[in-house]
Amino acid sequence: MIDVASALEYLHYGCTTPVIHSDLKPSNILLDRDMVAYVCDFGIAKFLDEGNSVLLTKTLATLGYMAPEYGVEGLVSTRVDVYSFGIIMMETFSRMKPSDEMFKDDLSLKSWIEESLPDAIFQVADRNLLGEQDKHFNEKLECISMIFNLALSCCTEYPQDRINMKDVVTTLKKIKRKLDA
After folding, report:
1. Which of 3, 23, 49, 106 is catalytic?
2. I need a surface site. Which of 34, 75, 151, 169 has the fewest CB within 10 A?
3. Active site (annotated) includes residue 23
4. Per-block average pLDDT, block size 10, for the chain (181 residues)?
């Protein structure tokens, strides 16, 4: 996750002209043999002109990963990538896709994770990540809870309330250090 977050941080802040991927989803993330992640498929990427922080577009991204303002109004900013990244984190650590048939009507992957915090993390976390017999069970559970909270910070309804990718990278690195300790 840190590789993908770092790539987005670079696109948003490291380029002369900020680049918005616009269609971040698991199939646009490749892993090499060392499990290093790379962001790919920039087919509908957008460049922010100097002085602009938002663009209007008619090109739509993938349902389930698309920020509300993008799908409803066609508004694109770096915060749409942040939203998509949050959904990908939820999917990765819960092993549930936003398109899963259990997510109908008012229940979404985001609301399911949100409702599980703080007391039911074990019920939504990928069982392969947590074994109750694991001697570091509580530490892992705490880190997964921190990851889900971070993911929710990426997926707030209003883009101006979302965390930025610089802060996402910093937070993920803190969580990794805690897990490695």
Report:
1. 23
2. 34
3. yes
4. 97 94 96 96 89 76 90 92 98 94 89 91 88 81 95 97 98 95 80
